[in-house]
Amino acid sequence: MIEVCDAAKWIENGARRVEILKEISFAIPAGQFVAIVGASGSGKSTLLGLLAGLDTPSAGEIWLDGVPIHNLAEAELAAVRGRKIGFVFQSYQLIQTLTALENVLLPYELNVEGNGLAQARRLLGEVGLGERMDHYPIQLSGGEQQRVALARAFVADPPIVMADEPTGNLDSVNGRIVLDLLLEHNRRAGTTLVLVTHDAEVASRAGRKITLKDGRIVEDTQPFSPPRKTSTRRDGTAAHKEGKNG
Ligand SMILES: Nc1ncnc2c1ncn2[C@@H]1O[C@H](COP(=O)(O)OP(=O)(O)O)[C@@H](O)[C@H]1O
Ligand SMILES: [Mg+2]
Prior knowledge:
By secondary structure, the protein is an alpha/beta fold. It has a single domain (2-95, 141-242), classed as Rossmann fold, CATH 3.40.50. The protein has 8 helices and 10 strands. Strands 6-7-8-3-9-10 form a 6-stranded mixed sheet, sandwiched between helices. It has a 4-stranded antiparallel sheet with strand order 2-1-4-5, with helices on one face. Strand 9 and strand 10 (216-220) form a beta hairpin. Helix 5 (142-154) packs parallel to helix 6. The structure holds adenosine-5'-diphosphate and magnesium ion. Residues 44-45 line the site of magnesium ion.
């Protein structure tokens, strides 16, 4: 489960404070497929970055399966990210000097025990790149690179997959292929999928849609109330020790 409690994000720009997200609260139960939608500049990528622990909120709390990630130092945060989250970027973010297979194996080298080679090969086969495992990103089309990025996001079996406009750089045919692979994996593995998109057709395939406007949630088609936490402290430290039921 992902829980966001009154989160905000602002940037101090000289004397000026630029507010990017305000009063964000929602929860996503395990296994749900949620689309986060809104116009360009509405704060979608910033919000997804907070959920993934790639960025920290200026205020408020973010909990991933009971872990208060707003409160963690970078090393701990990286460990939680590695265990819990597979992330897919709009621009693929493959390492150019590594082959497709080596890119997919990256999460294993960082934090998963055992040999992920068989898993990486299997996933590359599933996304249709069984014959191209030794190719470098520059030798692959955009759609193929994004399919490598999908295999990399899935390889460590994370319970949560997050994707930020994963079809945004692709034509409609390749966008459809990537989206189908993402949704099929979500169904089969039973993972939580949080998908940022400004494409209404893509969003229509999600069970739930959260709409952002000017940094606020203006619509949530299926609000979910998590079991109540007794601790409402916002300093995080105590909440961490007490745990979610403390
Ligand atoms: N590091 C930053 N510094 C200043 N403004 C930022 C920063 N990151 C994002 N913003 C601003 O915050 C708003 C939301 O950005 P973003 O989350 O990327 O929106 P979206 O993904 O919905 O297009 C935009 O107006 C953007 O310019
Ligand atoms: Mg964005």
